[in-house]
Amino acid sequence: MRVMVFFDLPTNTSIDRRIYRKFRTNLIKNGFMMIQESVYVKLSLNQTQTMQIIQDIKKIKPEKGLVQILTVTEKQFSKMEMLCGKSVSNVIDSDERLVIL
To answer: How far apart are CA 98 and CA 101, in angstroms?
Structure first.
């Protein structure tokens, strides 16, 4: 499964920008990868881990702004199409459970 986080946080004041950076940094520290600006994704092995990831996001979410979470299966995620731009080769987008690096 993949956990996708979409967020739209205010960046009007310096405090808002600091909160934005802190949230984004926490997502990256927790293993999320950016697939688009303000869209981050993380691989999850099972439903239990997915629920823990969601709980962790709820703990770090800012007071202001919008944070949305979407959970999709590997099969659904692999069907995502790039309509503009080019694919990044260092991103693993396979639906196989074992990946050897």
So the answer is: 10
User: What would the pLDDT profile of 26-80 be if each residue is shown by its tens digit?
Assistant: 999 999 999 989 999 999 999 999 999 999 999 999 999 999 999 999 899 888 8
Going by C-beta distance under 8 Å and a sequence separation of 6 or more, which residues neighbour residue 47?
1
pTM equals: 0.79
CA angle, residues 45, 46, 50, in degrees to nearest 5: 95
Contacts of 42 (CB under 8 A, 6+ apart): 2, 3, 5, 30, 31, 32, 33, 53
Tokens 């996001």 sit on residue: 57
